[in-house]
Amino acid sequence: MQLRAVVLGSGAWGCAIANLLADRGYNVLIWCREQNIADEINQQHTNILYLPGLSLHTNIRATIDISVAAQHADLVFEAVPVAYLRSVLQAFKPYQRRHRWVALSKGMEQHSFALSTQIIDEMLQPEGLAVIAGPTFARDLIERQFSAAVLASTNDVLRNELMTNLPTFYFKLFPSRDVIGVQVAGAIKNVLAIAVGIAKGAGCKDNTVAYLLTAGMEEMAELTSFFVGQRGTMYGLAGLGDMLLTCTGSLSKNQRAGFLLGQGKTLTQVRAELATMPEGINTLHSLIVLMEREKLYFPILSATHQFIAGCASLEQFFTVTLSAPIIPF
What are the backbone angles phi and psi of residue 288, rounded to the nearest 5°? Predict the structure, then answer.
């Protein structure tokens, strides 16, 4: 019997995972918000808005009807921005049965500070829950460039099933049980990419970037410990690997947003130019509230927030970031 899967979200990352699943022989249905994107995927096998110049597997179909998506398969991959995840799950909830979920979103919900798997578990109490994260640009994955990521789950049956059915000749998975650490790393690295982008936009070169990456790793590791994740996860694919890709890769939207801000653009101008708000901006707002509430202090995160909010100059941004310690706090 042919394997079946649902992907919630028709952005670049959702389409990349759908394409991977189709390569592995899955019959894939993508749930989209917009009818025009669903029509384009069904009729032309493209998604020009998010993946210009690329074609999608012909085994992928799309729908805007979430009830149809829920009935298509019991294996669900969610690729919805964290800011909208709860509302999408609320729409899905009436159709939830024995679904197993794989979280793909990288971020943290404002006010609750919840990670994707925590939101899914709270709202749906699924049969099984996993997360995939690592240094994987969507475009590279669709072009079948060799890539690797971490698959984390405390559900051994689901983790073993996915470890068997997902890898391809160009995509390798490494198993983990650190569901929290993998997600914290995925959220924080987006914020660090904005900081690196600001530095690059201001004209800084490799020395500055190397410092920000090294000090940023410490902040990421400390926050992982705060959320009761495993500190060692930060030095693997989900931490160091994804941070390097997002902070230095040419396709990084978070880094691009920071670059534009470092050049003097406003947040409104950045949103207009990128046609979307990178996840790191929302995550940063959540982290600042958390830091204030818990009396935590992370110089790079704080300086980045102050600069974006217009409360700090570039000189002040660098003064604060360069005060960050390189040893654990």
Answer: -65, -40
pTM strictly above 0.90: yes
Residues pairing with 219 in the sheet: none
Pairing of strands 128-133, 147-152: antiparallel
Domain boundary among 157, 177, 197: 177
Collect the ranges in the chain with pLDDT lower than 50.
329
Sign of CA dihedral 85, 34, 19, 58: positive
**How many whole angstroms separate alpha carbon 247 and alpha carbon 243?**
6
Would you say 257 and 280 are in contact if contact means Cβ atoms under 8 Å apart? yes
Asked if the structure places residue 328 within a domain, the reply is no
Between CA 197 and CA 185 the distance in angstroms is 18
List pLDDT tens digits, range 33-51.
999 999 999 999 999 999 9
Buried b (16+ CB within 10 A) or exposed e, 138-147: bbbbbeeeeb
The CATH number given to whatever domain includes residue 228 is: 1.10.1040.10
Planar angle of CA 267, 135, 280, nearest 5 degrees: 20
- CATH code of the domain containing 23: 3.40.50.720
Sign of CA dihedral 201, 202, 207, 208: negative
Q: What is the DSSP letter of 165?
A: H
Active site residues: 189
